[in-house]
TrEMBL record:
Ranges annotated as spanning the membrane: 12-31
Organism of derivation: Chitinophaga arvensicola
Family annotation (InterPro entries): LptD, LptD_2
GO cellular component, one term: cell outer membrane
Domain LPS-assembly protein LptD central residues, every copy: 252-728
Keywords, in A-Z order: Membrane, Transmembrane, Transmembrane helix
Protein name: LPS-assembly protein LptD central domain-containing protein
Amino acid sequence: MNASYKNNYKKFFRHTYLVFAGMFIAIPFIIDAVAGVRPQAVSFFNKSLADTTPLIRKDTGKIPKPAAIPPTIADSTQLSKGLDTSGGTTVDTLFIPKISKDTLDAPVNYKAKDSIILVVSDKRFYLYGAANTKYKTIDLSAEKMNFDQETGILEATNAKDTAGKLFGGPVMNDGGQSFESDTLKYNFTSQKAKIYNTRSQYGEGYIHSQQTKKAADNTIFGFKNGYTTCNLDTPHFSFRARKIKVIPDKLVISGPANLEIEGIPTPLFIPFAIFPITQGQRSGILPPQYVVNQQKGIGLENGGYYIGLGEHFDLTMRGDVYSYGSWSLTGSPTYRKRYKYSGGLNLSFANTRFGDPAVKSEFSTSKDFRITWNHSMDSKARPGVNFGAAVNFGTSSYNKYNVYDYNTRVNNNIGSSITYSKTWQGKPYNLTMGLNHSQNLSTRDVSISFPDATFTVNTIYPFQPKEMVGTPKWYEKIGVSYNTILRNQANFKDSLFGKQAMFDAMQTGMQHNIPISFSIPVFKTFTLSPGINYTEYWYTKQFNRKWDPNKFNPGTGTNGAIDTAYQAGFFAARDISASMSLSTALYGMYQFSKTSKIKAIRHVMRPTLSASYRPDLNSKNYYELQYNKDGDKQMVSKFDGAIIGVPSPGAFGGLNFGLDNNLEMKVFSKKDTTGNHERKVKLLDGFGINGSYNLVADSFKLSTFSLYARTNLFDKLNISASGNLDPYQVDNRGRRLDKYVWQQGKLSLGRLTNASISMSTSFQSKDKKAKAKEEKIDSMENVQGADAAFAAQQRQLQMVRNNPGEYVDFDIPWRLDLSYSLSYTNTIIPDSGGVVRRITQYVSFNGDFSLTPKWKIGLNSGFDFTNMQIAYTNMYISRDLHCWQMSINLIPFGTFRQFSITINPKAGILRDLRINRSRQFQDL
């Protein structure tokens, strides 16, 4: 090849390269000018124009049909010629035109798994395979999308797999609203959408619509709709309505609606429906529940109105009305101030009518009330100060005529407490004040203590220097403290509440206590603790008792009883004692062979021995009282029955002794394959004996022995027992003789005067969702804390007690709780006329089990061995119907009998939509 030919070849190659380079530079601008594409689209898509050239599908080798949409692109820059007048030469000048009116006000991001196609001539984009488009708050996903730039409409559809099954349907999320459909069309310009065969969720509810229109303000209009709380694609039930309107975050409103169950219309029609979807407080009507009561007739219960009064306060009013004329009204306000306090009040009035008003001899009424109040204070609100209240007070017959749940019926005792406490920061002072109330609904006895106060000065060391240097001297360990108790109490029948007799029964007392003590180690393993204790009692009433042979004794049914008179005034009693105690701990261990599964058993003994002296400063306050017609007498105090206690009679100078034991063993864990891991098993958490011996007494020098034991076997069986042994003999009338029981030749520590034992255990199968439930409870505690809203949820447990079958846990296949209690007394009670022996036994059990994963049977019951009868029994059967639940509750026998069957949705928004049939019977 000659040089001339080579030069021509190089020139040709250079010119060709420049032409192609110029074409590649100019093509984007030519396309922009022809298609009218806006320059913002490149940033919207985050892709180059080269990516938008038509693609050939790999599977067919053809350009696919339009199916998906990309966002719009703005007009590109235009290249034009300009004239430079200064130099007379022509130069290229770049002009940026005005943005089109249809330009979007926010970027659009898109992606697709399979392919993205731009057809320039049609001004359309197509996205295939798990396509996703995001614009402002809208997030749209579908298998296929296509976008028409001229109309600004995006269309999203599903696709069919090789088996002909639809998949990848459009899912649109917009500001918390979710839509699932077959086809969706969205206009980017007007921001309106039309959706076909859609399923959307609002709070706990779901709306299935044949066609849906979404306005620019997110208001939804549905055509041929169904509202349900069932989360299945084909719901078990729904309210069918031709038209529905959804106001975002507020309401779902429909016209006439018909209830369908399993796709079958029912005769139940409603003229309109309003379903709230707003979070937070909303005032509204609380629908009542239909019941049938043998005593009160046909009734409507728990109907009322809820009033939301802002962030800090709300009020719930509920009422019951019955065909026989009985009624009740309950007001329940709650209040809260975050990080300060929260509380709630229930005030109930009830009027129960019995018999026929036309027959006055058979007609009566019972007017009752009940007040409950709870208040809690945030510990961080005022450090060192706390105020709390838990009040439950009412007439004894309120529960009898107005409460039907198991727990309340079997519990005859209610109580209240209101407390205020203050701790001075940096000082040893503590003050607690309060009001306490206890009430026995069976005997109608009421006890109220107010004001109740305790002031304490913690132990201070007056001889201890501010800065300790070296080993402290013995006297530097001397500690002094002070404690005073103020009690004001009235015991009366509930019919006397607020009357003069209640105030006449009030008694006041005050107790002061000053202990002085210190401890020093001796002999390395022993601790010596000397101490002095001074106590003073102040009374405002003195009890004068005497035997009256002519007074009727209801206990024996004959004449002869103790008559009690009160003497008002100021009375004082004092007591002082000095003591010195010595204590230590002894350890013993027995080790087994290496082949044994038990490695060792350890026994720990903690003996204590003390010497004390107490002079007789109260002999004038004790006297002998005859307590039966046989002339038997017993030493009693003028202040027996006082609310602050009484000092012990006589002098004491002797020894106090005690022995506490602990027994445990070490075993090899089966879970450890190496066999080296050990675990401790407690055999007895504690068991021991306490007593004393009075060296200066003229008779009965040895005290009774106090025994106790407690353990938790295998972390399943809780056992606790206690009792008292009297080491002295008694005659045939139960009077003590100054002779020990072992002097009769019996190998015994004494006669059992009282004892009690209780056992309880619980078994259940593994909870399938235990971890998820714990996380939910933790999140509730972290979010709500001591807020009154959480307290209101706790008060809703009353509904659980009323209908336990509606609140069973289907995640636990079976559960069983057992408890047993036994008590025995054999003592002389003067007011009863002599020796009284009592034995009470009671066993209670409750549990449930699943016949199938959807059927559960439960039972709460017990047996009273004292009266040999079955205790209050409640049986229930529950059926899980997915989005509904059925429960049957039965109380088969007893004073109060009840039968009810309830079918209701699980969702809270439809909780009051229930089918209920109840029957209640009561023995009057």
